[in-house]
Please model this.
Amino acid sequence: MGEQILRVKFKPGTSMSERFDVIVGYLRQLIEDGIRDQYVRQKAVEIVNRAGIKQHDELGEIRAIVKWVQNNVTYRKDPFMVEYFMTARRILKDVEKGASAADCDDFVIVAASLLGSIGYPAGAIIVDSNADGVFNHVMLCTRTMGPTREYGSKWIVAELIFPNFKLNQSVKVSKVYPLIADPSTTRLPIHRQQIAGGMNSLGSIPSAKSGTGYQHPYSRMLNGLRGR
Amino acid sequence: MVWMGGTEEDDMDNGFIPVIDGALERDANETAQLQLGNTDMMNMHTDQSAFNVMNDRKNLQTHGLAGMPNLPIPRRNLLGRIANNKETAMMLGVGALLGVGIKALWDFRTK
Model:
């Protein structure tokens, strides 16, 4: 279950803002789930240890994780008009099997989960990679806990889908939408939530109205009771 | 499988897109020379705009990131809690101006 792929396909007529809400909700929750996953933490520790990063070298740890993701996860586009979201554990296992195929949001899910699991604030930033104001791409954002000589206390961003990009290097963007994961969340992981046909569990996913249009019977009943 | 309009049976019926020519099965040296895509991204213009926009004060405030409990970590020193070099310079500048101002006022009153 923890190695699930979520397949999100929108009903025709779903507005762009509704689609955006759904995607943003899944992205943030999958990062939070990854941060809480012990398997992910073990992998993060293994990566920084193998890279020979000294303890307390925060920027070194961030660089090691970013480089590992850039070099080991393989970029493949999702099917046409369908959005896949993978759990961090699934992506890591795919890499181990040599069957990695992930797009930009999956890259960010795994990198932010790895960083978050070893104590860094991490999340995604949705950007307009054509600098035209239309959000179409996702990058990683994180920061060190203490100020560093290079970046002070600023947020660090990383383009993960190109192995030769350095920290903070990106194509030209004009707009960003940051989603910082909350590692202290106590909600159920996505793979334990009741999701059928789309985006409707009874719990914490942004809105029962947004999404694919499908409503779980319990949601319908709850909405009916609320309406009375 | 027989393709529409044809009569000959072919063996590419395993449901997957067939690998024609073995283009994807050549050895590593040949594959490196295939140049099937734009993975080198030679012409891609890059900058630090994502970093700059992300750390823009207005953006941080809009998304509630300016008030992260650990952002920034202040250093304790003789002048109090100072977060960075900019604040140090500001404190020294204000201190100098204040000193010169007080001296000027003193001179004006007493001389």
